[in-house]
Every structure is written in C-alpha cells, then in structure tokens.
Amino acid sequence: MPQLKGEIAILGAGAMGLGIAQLFAQKNVSVILYDKFQNILEDALGKIYAQMNELVKQGFITEESIEGVLQNIKTTEDLEEVKNSWLVIEAIPEILELKQELLSQLETICDSTVIFASNTSGLPINMLAEKLEHPERFIGTHFFMPAQVVPLVEVIRNDKTSEQVSNKVMDFFKEIDKKPVLLKKDIPGFIGNRIQHAMAREAISLLEQGIASAEEIDTVVRWSIGVRMLFTGPLEQRDLNGLDVHHHIASYLYKDLENRTEPADLLAKKVANSELGIKTGKGFYEWDENQQKNISQEKNTKMLQLIHWVNQLEK
Length: 315
Prior knowledge:
Elements: E1 8-11, H1 15-26, E2 31-34, H2 38-57, H3 64-71, E3 73-76, E4 87-90, H4 96-109, E5 115-118, H5 125-128, E6 138-143, E7 152-157, H6 163-175, E8 179-183, H7 192-208, H8 214-228, H9 234-241, H10 243-253, H11 265-272, H12 289-314
Helix pairs in contact: 1-2, 9-10
C-alpha cells in the first residue's frame, strides 16, 4: 500500500501526540514523532503498541499489521529532523508562549512550503500565528482525545491562512477517513469545546443545586441526548422538533439556565482539594485503582465498536 502524501511530523509525544501519530501510522502515513525526552518517546511507543494489541483483541486489526504500523513511526529528539515533512503538527502543552516559541523555531528549520499546524483545544489560532513570518502556512487542527478513535477534526484558519493550505489539510484528513470541519472564524474553544462546556456548566450547576446525583445527571444525558446525537445534531434536532416549539420553550427556559461567567464554586472547591477526577481517584465520582488503570481503554474500545457500527449503518 503506498504511503499517503509523504512524511508528517508530530511534535510532542504526550497523550495527544502519540494518538495522532498512531492514527496516521494506521493509515499508512509516514510519521516522525519528536520529543525532547527519550523516555517520553519510549513510553509513547509502548502505549501505541499496547493500544494496537487491544485492537487485535477486538478484531479491528490483525496481529501482523502491528509491525507495519510501528514501522511507519520514527522517533527523534532532534527537531532538525522534521524539516523534510510536508506537514508539522505541534501537540505540546497548552501554553501560548511555548507554542509560539516552537513555531518560530520551526520557521528557522523548515522552508516556507511546509505547513505548520497546532493541535490546541482552544488557544486562538490568530494569537499562535502572531510571531510567524509566514502565517499564511499556519492552521489549527483540533483533534479530540483519543485522536486515534474520535473521527472529528476541527480545522481552524487564522486570518492569513491561505486557501491552498486549508484545502490541502482538509483534503488530507478526508483521504485518511477523518471527518474534518473547517471553521470560518477563529473563536475561543472552537465548536466542540464551546458546546461541551456549555453542557458541562449546566450539568455542574444541577449537581451543585442538589437536583440529582452526578450519576443520575449523566444517565439522563447518556440515554436521551447522547444516543440521539449519534444520528442528529442539535440544529437538525430543532428542525425535527419544530422551530416554533423550540422558540416557545426557549422563551421561558433560557432565563433559568446557568449563565455564570466563572467556574462553579463546586468545581473550584474540588480542584482546590485535588479532587481532579480519575488522575487522583476522586472527582465527581470515586475511582478505584482498577478503574484508574483500565477504564479509559475500555471506553475507547466501546467507542471504536460503536463508530464501526454507525459507519456500517451509513454505508
């Protein structure tokens, strides 16, 4: 099977970086995975191998394909080695100054034809592009965790991104069977996180008010909105319900919805008490050692099975 469009560089071998690398490698794209620290690169390859083994167990891939996928990934601690890639995606921590510094460094290494992308969850793409000499070749690519599982990628132009760059990136993602959406404007949080945070703000408020338990609130979302939204988004659902019905409900409900502009006191208190969720064993739920170790992989496997089923339905 031929390589797709040449080599892509991924900068940062953390959770997002290794997921993006695995995604591309599984699609037979040649990847160079960069990180400053060899132990992080080794850990990333170990995690990719473990995730590939899980795919074998679930019947998504054959055991023989693992070696081919891993051969598509080259690791390096030398940033200079990314200069021959046609696309460089930085996936380092969400710190504006660090990302700007790395992007500026890339401009001294790569020629002006190389496309730069930032995998950011919400940092403004225009701000990330501020110090670039060639902002026209810079674009945002927001993958959702885990990148190798969730189909969507938000592609965000800065004010000077060229049409050629955005088209090339969109075409590439379509070619590897992702579902890219091109945002017409650079806004904080993009689309997915804005909607997700609006829903989470209301859910936390309901919990804070004692309306229901965390588990009950999650049950309502999972078994009503959640299952329905696999097949219809919030705007299409409004059409199905009738815009007149939505307008009537909105006219009295909106004024009662949570609209605070700061994080909820309940959330702030939990963070202050190091109740951070699965990473500390307690958040809105309590997580035992076995759950802390296995639940993410279990949920990823279920998502893969569900995505595969939905894809079959839509063929």
